[in-house]
Amino acid sequence: MATSHYKTETFTSENFVESAGRRNVGESRCDTAIRETTEETGISCRLLPINMKSRLCPSEETDVPDGARVFKGVCEPISVQMRRIGEHEMKLIWWYVAAVNENKIVGKCENEFEVEWYGYEEVLEKLTFQNDRELVARAIKLVQSYYP
């Protein structure tokens, strides 16, 4: 979680938020999530495999009924959000579950952010926005079910 000092229409400088950024042309969503988290926090991370229910199609099958199924050990987005960033502009954010690469050197985070660490319960109290709390609660539940 990061405290933002970056002025936007979405949050003020005293808000506690997750890192999110823009995808580069040709960059995968997975690579974007890792790059943006590392750039904004200075912390090297990796996507964390989880078990999750999704309407995605299995990779090899083409004629699959449209319905939710459980996928095991996947690194897929757990949510997608739309945020207004201007009068006529929206930003799509694909949220993943990630873990810190403990063996990598921690760099400096972007000037607009300050990184703080919290336990599961405390982070849910600290996050400024209800939709962020719901998103993190879902991520915690997925992690705890895969890594008991």
Automatic annotation (TrEMBL):
<dbReference type="GO" id="GO:0004081">
    <property type="term" value="F:bis(5'-nucleosyl)-tetraphosphatase (asymmetrical) activity"/>
</dbReference>
<feature type="domain" description="Nudix hydrolase">
    <location>
        <begin position="20"/>
        <end position="137"/>
    </location>
</feature>
<dbReference type="InterPro" id="IPR051325">
    <property type="entry name" value="Nudix_hydrolase_domain"/>
</dbReference>
<dbReference type="Pfam" id="PF00293">
    <property type="entry name" value="NUDIX"/>
</dbReference>
<dbReference type="InterPro" id="IPR020084">
    <property type="entry name" value="NUDIX_hydrolase_CS"/>
</dbReference>
<protein>
    <recommendedName>
        <fullName>Nudix hydrolase domain-containing protein</fullName>
    </recommendedName>
</protein>
<dbReference type="GO" id="GO:0006754">
    <property type="term" value="P:ATP biosynthetic process"/>
</dbReference>
<dbReference type="InterPro" id="IPR015797">
    <property type="entry name" value="NUDIX_hydrolase-like_dom_sf"/>
</dbReference>
<dbReference type="GO" id="GO:0006167">
    <property type="term" value="P:AMP biosynthetic process"/>
</dbReference>
<dbReference type="InterPro" id="IPR000086">
    <property type="entry name" value="NUDIX_hydrolase_dom"/>
</dbReference>
<keyword id="KW-0378">Hydrolase</keyword>
